[in-house]
């Protein structure tokens, strides 16, 4: 029986803001080519399925009707609507934008349904993770918010608690906003400090409101944070708060733009560290949510040497067939990658060196800016959850 499922349709490549835009469809094209070159769809534990477009009814669970109508108009007439974020520098208009964005949502929602109904354990949508889209506006390359729609579908199907873990370099503001006052959904975002990066939000004191106070968790890291420190920050916060939330399902966003080669952020998190974090989230889903896990893509603009490697690894991890660190990448894929991008691709999947990081329980250094950022989050959120911010 297939226990993991990858949603993909070639039409997802039609989500294309045009030449020169960072969110180039070649990043998904090369990802799927690498997944196939590694023969992952042949694994007995993995099923490749279509990503269907979401219906208007699904979109309206997380977006305003006026906004969906505006996206449809803009997709055909190509008339900008800056008040709704349509036709801006970040979100230029293109023909068929509604259909392409709705397919991103449909892929994530259909996987969420399959996970909740027990037809699969894990679902992956590398074209998803559009975490910036707001209820009534496009934002940050994101037209519709598939992550929020998938979580909403899980709640509508009967999930009592969902944990959303966002590892993108940019704050997961759209998902946080969608569930800001909903105690059933914990949103945890580990990102670069909003004072130095779009969207300028996601501070430690942003913890949710009312009965949901303590269910918004933000780890805001300084520019230059490297892989070992990034892992230390994740380990110091994410497992404790997710375990305390006791989710029925874990939904995670694996934007890989925290890499040092990414042109749109200022973190230094290598592929090895990102793969380690994927393993941690996978294990946490088994520990805290009975294995129910929906993993999404997101940001990532180093389209040859980072995105395909990170997301092929995510698919293999979900299929319980993790790729070997430092393994050579297929020569035929490297040739195609060079041809499509004119960029020399990596030769190996990370390195064979083990990822070394220091556990929070070994003590924290108030002179270290990463440790200060982590402790700010722990002090803001842990007491609200009945946890001790100073001890594990």
Automatic annotation (TrEMBL):
Entries under Gene3D superfamilies matching the protein: Histone deacetylase domain
Alphabetized UniProt keyword annotations: Acetoin catabolism
SUPFAM superfamilies reported in the protein's UniProt record: Arginase/deacetylase
Designated name of the protein: Acetoin utilization protein AcuC
Source species: Myceligenerans indicum
Pathway: Ketone degradation; acetoin degradation
Family listed: Belongs to the histone deacetylase family.
Domain Histone deacetylase: 21-316
CDD domains according to UniProt: HDAC_AcuC_like (cd09994)
Entries under InterPro entries matching the protein: AcuC, HDACs, His_deacetylse_dom, His_deacetylse_dom_sf, Ureohydrolase_dom_sf
């Amino acid at each position: 029986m297939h226990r993991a499922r990858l949603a993909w349709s070639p039409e997802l490549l039609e989500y294309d803001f045009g030449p020169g835009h960072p969110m180039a469809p070649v990043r998904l094209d090369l990802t799927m080519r690498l997944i196939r070159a590694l023969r992952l769809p042949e694994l007995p534990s993995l099923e490749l399925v279509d990503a269907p477009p979401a219906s208007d009814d699904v979109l309206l669970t997380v977006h305003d009707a006026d906004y969906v109508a505006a996206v449809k108009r803009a997709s055909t007439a190509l008339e900008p609507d800056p008040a709704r974020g349509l036709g801006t520098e970040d979100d230029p208009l293109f023909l068929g934008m509604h259909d392409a964005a709705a397919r991103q949502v449909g892929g994530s929602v259909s996987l969420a349904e399959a996970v909740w109904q027990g037809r699969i354990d894990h679902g992956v949508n590398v074209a998803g993770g559009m975490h910036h889209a707001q209820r009534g506006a496009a934002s940050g390359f994101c037209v519709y918010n598939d992550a929020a729609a998938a979580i909403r579908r899980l709640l509508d199907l009967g999930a009592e608690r969902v944990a959303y873990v966002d590892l993108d370099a940019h704050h997961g503001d759209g998902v946080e906003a969608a569930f800001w006052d909903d105690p059933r959904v914990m949103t945890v975002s580990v990102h670069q400090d909003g004072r130095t990066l779009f969207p300028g939000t996601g501070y430690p004191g942003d913890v949710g409101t009312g009965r949901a106070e303590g269910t918004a968790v933000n780890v805001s890291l300084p520019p230059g944070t490297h892989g070992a420190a990034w892992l230390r920050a994740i380990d110091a916060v994410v497992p404790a708060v997710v375990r305390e939330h006791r989710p029925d399902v874990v939904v995670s966003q694996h934007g890989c733009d925290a890499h040092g080669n990414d042109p749109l952020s200022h973190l230094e998190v290598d592929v090895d560290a990102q793969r380690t974090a994927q393993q941690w989230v996978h294990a946490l889903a088994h520990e805290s949510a009975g294995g129910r896990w929906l993993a999404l893509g997101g940001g990532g603009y180093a389209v040859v040497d980072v995105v395909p490697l990170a997301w092929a690894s995510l698919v293999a991890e979900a299929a319980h067939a993790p790729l070997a660190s430092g393994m050579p990448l297929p020569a035929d894929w490297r040739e195609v990658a060079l041809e499509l991008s004119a960029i020399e691709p990596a030769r190996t999947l990370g390195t064979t060196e083990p990822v070394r990081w220091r556990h929070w329980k070994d003590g924290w250094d108030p002179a270290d800016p990463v440790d200060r950022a982590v402790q700010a989050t722990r002090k803001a959120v842990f007491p609200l959850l009945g946890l001790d911010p100073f001890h594990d």
